[in-house]
Design goal:
Oligomer: single chain
Order of helices and strands: HEHHHHHHHHHHHHHHHHHHHHHE
Strand order of the largest sheet: 1-2
Shape: globular
Strand content: under 5%
Largest sheet: 2 strands, antiparallel
Radius of gyration: 21 Å
Number of helices: 22
């Protein structure tokens, strides 16, 4: 017998039809932030050269272009705008999950192919800063892990490429493993990142349904597909990291709301442990994990299972000779040896947020405004009962994690890819918006403009 998951929408979803003027003001303010980041950033870069990006606040170059993905991306955008919301409302749940994954795949692949196969997919992860440059140095994995710390600093002999040095070795080992099973090279790496990264949309949908109810999950589905973030999900490795973190949170939501927390709890813990060895910054996903625990049943058993699973990755990497804390200490030094030591904090601490606006789009800005209004209107008890405020709290936790990363000063520029694991969790705020088709069109237009006017770094 099929088990029906527990409902959290005790009083039904609340999507308020008014507030369009306030939405417009929020979007206008976000647009002004982006404009300021572009104008001030361009001046700083042209005069002083300190930003180290080609098209402030983004890493990329101004290059109007089209490619084989242009007609496909346009067709996907039109189809999702026209048919996405009604299909999301009517499809049975499991077919909807498959449809969301398929739509995210089509959107991300088509945007990547706007730059062409070689430049947009096969060559992205093979440049001198990327992980594939170091795959051959992991012939003996235990020896490479024991020696990993010795090659982090710029002055060290045979220092790692920037992205290898800037991440724990789990990131590079992803591509080492692909190579070992016969899927070596940039084309397979790009295909893997896009295919795996697109599953993040499914993980978000599962989590929102568990914690805020199926109606709000369905309202967010089309926005999880047609997101500007897909410009960087294909083919940045951070898209893969985002998917791992998203599934860790999805499994945790299943553990804290279901009757059998053992397997999802252990799975969540295993993936949380892996995220820590994919990116140092992903430790901040703990903020959103805490929100999932708060919105769940608050039983102790799921947390115990998750804690047991979490210990596996640290135990394995430590046993093989990798010291996470020592590597992070050396990374901080390496960061300030390179562009991070030149890029001005005073610009990036707010320009990073302009990058985020471009990643999540105007609909998310308006949705965040509405989510904040829901939390403002609700009392403390209502937060844990009402589906709209529960969703607002989940989304707000991701925004908080993103702001902590921003203030830390370890994310000066490149946040259009680095913050993908957090930015994706802002997208469900679009469920608060009435009249989704217009907002979806805005999301698609922004993504298409970015991808066709700027040759992004990822």
């Amino acid at each position: 017998m099929k088990r029906t998951p527990p409902r959290t929408d005790l009083h039904g979803p609340r999507v308020r039809p008014g507030g369009t003027a306030a939405d417009a003001c929020a979007v206008a303010a976000a647009a002004l932030l982006v404009l300021a980041a572009v104008l001030i950033g361009t001046h700083l870069q042209n005069r002083y050269g300190v930003l180290r990006v080609g098209r402030p606040p983004l890493v990329g170059d101004w290059m109007p272009h089209a490619g084989p993905g242009t007609p496909a991306a346009s067709a996907v955008a039109v189809a999702v705008v026209a048919y996405g919301p009604p299909l999301a409302a009517r499809l049975p749940w499991r077919p909807l999950l498959l449809a969301v994954w398929g739509g995210a795949l089509a959107w991300t692949w088509s945007l990547a192919l706007v730059d062409g196969w070689q430049r947009g997919v096969a060559g992205r992860l093979t440049t001198r800063h990327e992980y594939l440059q170091a795959v051959d140095r992991f012939g003996d994995v235990p020896a490479a892990l024991r020696d990993f710390h010795a090659h982090i600093l710029i002055g060290a002999p045979d220092n790692w490429p920037a992205h290898v040095a800037g991440h724990p070795p789990g990131a590079t080992l992803t591509f080492v493993l692909l190579d070992r099973i016969g899927l070596g090279g940039g084309a397979w790496a790009g295909a893997f990142v896009i295919t795996a990264g697109a599953t993040a949309a499914v993980a978000l949908l599962v989590t929102v349904r568990r914690l805020a109810g199926e109606d709000l999950a369905r309202r967010s589905a089309s926005f999880l597909v047609l997101t500007p973030a897909a410009v960087w999900m294909g083919t940045s490795a951070d898209g893969w990291f985002a998917a791992v973190a998203a599934w860790a949170l999805a499994l945790l939501s299943l553990a804290v709301t279901g009757r059998r927390p053992a397997w999802p709890g252990l799975g969540a813990g295993l993936l949380f442990g892996l995220t820590v060895y994919l990116s140092y910054g992903l430790t901040l996903i703990a903020v959103t994990a805490a929100a999932v625990l708060l919105l769940g049943t608050r039983r102790l058993r799921p947390l115990l299972y998750a804690a047991a699973g979490f210990l596996v990755a640290p135990a394995v990497f430590t046993a093989l000779g990798f010291d996470w804390w020592e590597a992070y200490r050396l990374l901080v030094t390496r960061y300030h040896q390179g562009a991070g030591g030149v890029r001005p904090y005073g610009y990036w601490v707010w320009a990073n947020l302009a990058c985020t606006v471009l990643v999540v789009g105007p609909a998310t800005v308006a949705g965040l405004r509405r989510g904040g209004a829901e939390l403002w209107r609700s009392g403390r008890a209502a937060v844990l009962r009402d589906p709209a405020t529960r969703l607002a709290l989940l989304v707000g936790s991701a925004l908080l994690a993103l702001l902590v990363a921003d203030v830390s000063g370890m994310s000066k520029a490149e946040t259009e890819r680095i913050w993908l694991p957090f930015a994706l969790w802002l997208l469900p705020a679009c469920a608060f918006l009435p009249g989704p088709r217009g907002w979806l069109a805005g999301q698609a237009a922004l993504a298409l403009l970015l991808n066709h006017l700027v040759l992004t770094g990822w």
